[in-house]
Each structure stands twice: as C-alpha cells, then as structure tokens.
Write a structure and sequence with these properties.
Jelly Rolls; 727 residues; 41% helix; four-stranded antiparallel sheet; 4 domains; alpha+beta; 27 helices
C-alpha cells in the first residue's frame, strides 16, 4: 500500500508483478471497472521502461550455486569423454526438479546414497571403457512391456516387414562369446519365424514349432551394439483358410493378439565367455592417445602422464594443472602395483569420474572481485555454460581450445560457435531434455488411461505421442522457425499407429513422416496427443489440468495453489451420463472460494474439450449426447469458440507476446540452471525485443540468452570460495 508508481526502482519485485498483471488484463480484477486498451498499454510501458532503466544502471546477474551434473548430463559427459554409451537411468537415480527442470543447481544435492551410486558407476564404466580380462560372465535381461502391441513393426531398429519383438543397445565389455536367449509369451506354433540380429546383421533364425530352445551362442566384438529380435511378418497371410485362428482376436487395453500369435517377452544376454580385451574400440581409441613400447619403466610413465593430462583436461573442462596430474598419477601408480599398465589407467578413469572437478560445475571467482559485485565469468566457464545448455555435456575440443585462448567471449566467435553447436547432432539433448520437461513429455511414461474407456491406448501409442512432439520441436529448432510457429504450424510427424489414432488415411509402417493437416483442428502443439493426454485424468478430460498447464507453461501466469479443504469435482457415472463437463464445472465454481481462480483456468481448458483424454477429436462429451462447447474468453476478454479460434487468439497481442516471453523465460531458466528472479525480467524483455526483427526465431532467442548478462556474468560471493579438493 505504501508503494508509489514514481518510485519503481525502490521495489522492483512488486512493480514487476504489477506490470505482469496489467500486461495480461488480470488487474484490476472483475467486476471492478477496467481501463481501455490504450491505458493498459501506456501503464505497462511506463512501468517496464522504469524497471529496465533501473536494471541497466545496476545489473544483477544472479549467483548460481555449484552445479552437480544431473543424470542426463553425466551420461552424455561420459559418452563425450570416453566414447562410451552408458544408460544413466540404469546407473543413477532420477534427479530432483525445481522450477520445472532437473538441472537446477539448488536441488542437485549429493547424498551419501547418491555418492555410493557414483562410485559404483565409475567402477563399472572404467572397466567397460578399458576392458577387464578378469570379468566374469553376467546376465542382462531386457523385457518388453505387456502394453506393447506386437502386431506390426515396433521399432525403426527392426527390419521392414517384421512383426513385434524388441531392439536394445547392449554393451559387450570384451571380445568373446555371448549367449543370446529369447523368451516368448503366447502360443508359439508354426509357421512363425523368429530372427535375431546384431548390428542389423542376421545371426540366427528359428521356425517356431515344437518350442526349441530359442538361443544362439556367437562371437561378438566388444562395444555397444544393437541387438534385435523380431518375427518375420505376414507369413500367416499365405496360410490356407482353415489354418487361420478360428476365434476372433482378443482385444484388450494392452494389445490385439490372435490366439495363435506369439510375442517376444524378453531377451537375455549372457557372457562374456573366454573374453579378451579388445585391441581397439571407440573408447580405447579415445583413452589411449599413446601406448608404451614396454609396460614398465619411464616409457610407460611418460605415456601415462600424457593420457592423464588429456583425460583430466576434457573431464575438468579446463587445462589440467600439475596438481591434477600428479594426484592422478599417484592413482595410476597404485593401480600398476596390483596389475598392468591398463589397470593403472583404469584406476585413473575411476578416480576422474568421482572427482568433484568432474561431477560439479564450479565457476572460479577471481580474487580481485569485490564481494557481492557482478563480474564477467571466464571463457572456460562460458564454454561449460554453453555446452551444458545446448548439449547437456562437456565442451568439445574446438570449444575448449577457443576458451583456453580466451577467444570464445568475442561476440563474432561466440555466435559462430552457437550456430555450430545447434547444427550438431548433440543438440538433440536440448530437444529431449528441455521439451521433455517443459511440455511434460516425461510424464507420458506414467500415464494410464482407463482401459475400459480407452482400450486402444497401448505402449505403441504412448511412444508415438512422445516421438511426434520431439520430432516436431526438433524440426522447428533446426529449421530456425519462429517460436510462435509452435502454436500455428500446419504439419506434424506420424507413423501408422499415430495416423490411425488421428484419423489420417494412407500412412503405413512404423516410420515417422511429415504430414500436413487438412484443416486447422490440430495445428501446432495444442492438437498433439502427448500434451492432451498428460493434462487429462485416466477416465476423462480435465479443463482444470489443461487450463492450469496453459497458464503456467504457455502464458507464464500460473494460478495460485488451491485453498485447503476444498472438495474436488464430484465424480459419479450417473452424473457423467446426464451432465456435461461444463455444467459440472459450473456447479463446482459455485463455491465462492473456487470461483476467482477457476474463472481464469476453466475457459482455457474448455477451449480444448473437443479432444478427449487420449487426444482424439470428438463432438460430444463422453458417452452423453451433450455437444462440446469450446467457447470462452481469455483474461483480457478476447473470445473464442473452438480450438482453432483459441489458437488464433493466442497468436494475437498481447497473448502472442506473453507466449514468446514465457518460452524465453523457460529457456533461460534451463540455460542458467536456476530459477528466475524479478531482476531477470528486464533481461527477458530485452531478449524478446532484440529477437523481434528476426521474427523471434529460435536462433535469435538462443543467441540473446547466450549474450545476456546472467549468462555471461555472475554476482560475486560474499567471501571468496576456497579451492575444490578431491576427497
């Protein structure tokens, strides 16, 4: 109450909130009198100009905490350090999330239990990378989901014309013999034919009749290889009529299965037997930059120093110091005392992978910096910020070399590197990790639509939903389209399973291909099954979940949490058969405690009511004759009467600007690895303004983030940090 508009700079946090509510027409709240659009615009311009000027005079880049590598970053860093593909989900537990992402430094703690997992992972990875001739045979089991329909080709990694099965990437630690076993479920009578492939090469074929042991023992060279098991498709189509199943197909929520059709249940891979350390693998080529002519003496020691220096420089993302090298050479010596040259190097790799210098991104603060003042980070720290933003991994040789020579901070060089990195295949991590969390794609794995109401939902459709959105976003990013095309694009990517779900004819096979929508029902993200399914309940749609998701993730105006002890929407089959969703929600809003928030949330959710709980188009509400009513208004009064009209309203100011701002905020949060504060709002506005001449293309927003104050600077600590020592 004491705040005065003329003193905006005294309480920027408050006035940022005021500007945001004015910008979206949420203030003053109804039914109070509202000014005209020109007055809104003038007020917002006044406040934001004053706030931007205050921020320019006294910038605050924020102070990120020490950042532990999350599970995805760890796996990618191991891949780029050692040339070894590892499954982070197998090695490490899921990370905590904050502000919608799991790369937020504040929540990436290191518990004793997690440290133990890192120690176990380092031991396993070092053996896989170097090779361990003492390794005893082990068994790895890969199971298919019972929700996977095996009535067609299920993976791009399996042959065209195949049916069902499973394709996995398995690491074979040594050159040697391995036993591959296949277990089936269902009735496995002739004439079904099963094939096993390694790296797409056929290694065994079985004609199913009397259930012979479905196993093959074969030599395999070490490395991560693709193992595929599938049935030869369409054999049954050539059978005489009396050989076809006499009973109709069994249809359930899991799969459609003819009684005589078997399905792959699991693959077992046992070995190695008589294993040998390989002479050459991608990992060994990356590690052994030299090899001593003799395993002892000064030649071995000199080579070990060269290997240690190269590994530590890449792993620690800066030139290795004498202290780094000497410490790791002591570890090498300890390993050599109990084994050979390669044992010493294996010990070194294990030590590097548990070092805080690898596991944590800690930015070095110059001793001359005034406490709590902003300063520009070093080129080496800039290289790490950039690589973990775009690749979720360590800098490559080119990026690190530029940073070592202090050339990366040159604006021309920096822009060139950003464009190079975006065109690199490793930028797929940005697509997977950013969209997977911003758009809730990771939640798809846990959704379970009601089997009675949605019997056609299976793992094939679940996988297709996620793949569609990832390919769509990847196409937008690599095509450098405007971020607003996320809402308006008239195309998507489908395979046969997804096309059937959407009612698109003449699409066959598991391969995804681009298709153009015949109308504007599903344009952009808002018509995609992934988003529509994760914002629904198992048995019905939820205007509240969808409206809340839209406010939080597309419009940057999250509603407050519901008050305690407020009853949810009454659920009963009788009510659902007689009353439409809008009528039931109106009765729920009759509670005055609920009314104010639901007035903002519900209309946005109703805009998508033509899509059911698994994203199918519908004209009526569930099993009733109630026609879907998709009419509503945005908080500023803009009206719509269909999903297409809703999208059009979102692409009109001020909502198009709010959407662009929200995408920028989400991307900046992900890039910085911290939550945004009020002092970041002027930066977001500047990035959006600077990107406007480029129609807010992805490259313009990403470059704006990389060139921004919070990305290139940080606020000094209150007291200098000590150096980080290995335990």
């Amino acid at each position: 109450d004491d705040a005065e508009p003329g003193e905006v700079s005294r309480d920027p946090a408050l006035w940022e909130k005021v500007a945001g509510k004015l910008r979206t027409g949420m203030m003053p709240p109804p039914p109070r009198p509202r000014p005209d659009a020109a007055t809104y615009t003038a007020l917002v311009s006044y406040f934001e100009t004053a706030l931007d000027q205050a921020a320019l005079a006294s910038p605050d880049p924020g102070r990120p905490v020490a950042h532990r590598l999350n599970r995805a970053e760890y796996a990618n860093s191991v891949r780029d350090l050692l040339g070894l593909e590892v499954d982070g989900r197998e090695l490490l537990p899921a990370d905590e999330s904050g502000y919608g992402f799991d790369n937020i430094g504040d929540v990436l703690s290191l518990s004793p239990g997690l440290l133990e997992r890192y120690l176990l992972a380092a031991a396993k990875i070092s053996r896989q990378a170097v090779g361990d001739p003492t390794l005893r045979p082990t068994t790895a089991i890969y199971k298919t989901s019972p929700l996977l329909a095996q009535d067609g080709r299920v993976s791009d990694n399996l042959p065209f014309g195949s049916r069902g099965g499973l394709a996995v990437r398995h690491h074979f630690p040594l050159d040697g013999e391995y036993l591959l076993k296949v277990n089936l479920r269902g009735r496995a009578r002739a004439p079904h034919q099963l094939e096993i492939r390694v790296d797409r090469k056929l290694v065994a074929t079985f004609a199913l009749g009397d259930r012979p042991p479905l196993e093959v023992r074969l030599p395999v060279l070490s490395g991560t290889r693709l193992v595929g098991v599938s049935f030869v498709g369409n054999i049954g189509q050539s059978l005489p009529v009396d050989a076809r199943p006499s009973r109709p197909p069994i249809t359930s929520f899991a799969y459609t299965l003819y009684p005589n059709d078997p399905a792959v249940d699991q693959i077992e891979i046992l070995g190695p037997y008589d294993g040998l350390v390989p002479a050459d693998t991608p990992a060994r080529g990356r590690i052994f930059v030299c090899y001593p002519s003799a395993t002892g003496g000064t030649d071995a020691r000199r080579c070990a120093r060269q290997i240690v220096t190269a590994l530590a420089t890449r792993a620690y993302r800066r030139p290795a110091t004498d202290e780094d090298v000497d410490s790791l050479l002591a570890t090498y010596d300890a390993g050599r005392r109990t084994g050979e040259f390669e044992d010493g190097i294996r010990w070194v790799i294990e030590a590097i992978l548990v070092s805080p210098k690898f596991l944590f991104r800690i930015e070095e603060q110059p001793a001359t910096v005034t406490p709590s003042s902003p300063y520009r980070i070093s080129d080496l720290d800039l290289a790490s910020r950039l690589s973990f933003f775009l690749w979720s991994s360590i800098p490559d040789a080119e990026l690190l070399d530029l940073a070592v020579n202090e050339r990366l901070s040159d604006p021309v060089v920096l822009e060139r590197q950003v464009r190079r990195m975006l065109s690199d295949v490793r930028s797929g991590a940005l697509v997977k990790n950013f969209t997977g969390q911003w758009l809730y794609l990771r939640n798809l794995q846990s959704v379970a639509p009601d089997a009675t109401q949605f019997p056609e939902f299976d793992d094939n459709l679940r996988t297709a939903f996620r793949r569609e959105t990832e390919m769509f976003f990847d196409d937008q990013l690599r095509g450098d389209r405007s971020v607003r095309d996320l809402l308006s694009a008239n195309y998507t990517f489908v395979n046969e399973r997804l096309a059937r779900h959407y009612g698109i004819p003449n699409v066959y096979g598991n391969h995804f291909r681009r298709v153009t929508w015949p109308d504007d029902r599903r344009a952009g993200l808002l018509g995609q099954g992934s988003l529509l399914t994760v914002t629904s309940y198992p048995h019905r749609t939820s205007p509240v979940l969808r409206g809340k998701w839209l406010l939080e993730n597309l419009l940057g105006a999250p509603p407050p949490p519901p008050p305690p002890d407020v009853p949810g929407l009454e659920e009963s089959p009788d009510r659902e058969q007689t009353a439409g969703m809008r009528e039931r929600m109106a009765q729920h809003r009759a509670n005055p405690v609920c009314a104010s928030c639901h007035a903002r949330i519900d209309p946005l959710g109703f805009a998508l009511e033509n899509f059911d709980a698994v994203g199918r188009w519908r004209a009526t509400d569930g099993g009733t004759d109630n026609l879907i009513d998709a009419t509503g208004t945005l908080p500023d009064g803009a009206a719509f009467d269909s999903p297409a009209a809703f999208r059009a309203a979102l692409l009109t100011e001020p909502w198009a600007g709010e959407f662009t701002r929200t995408v920028t905020e989400k991307l900046l949060t992900y890039a910085l690895g911290r939550g945004l504060e009020f002092y970041d709002a002027p930066v977001v506005r500047q990035i959006v303004r600077d990107a406007e001449p480029e129609a807010h293309r992805w490259s313009s927003l990403i470059l704006g983030i990389v060139e921004s104050v919070p990305f290139q600077m940080r606020r000094a600590d209150d007291a200098p940090l000590g150096s980080v020592e290995d335990p």
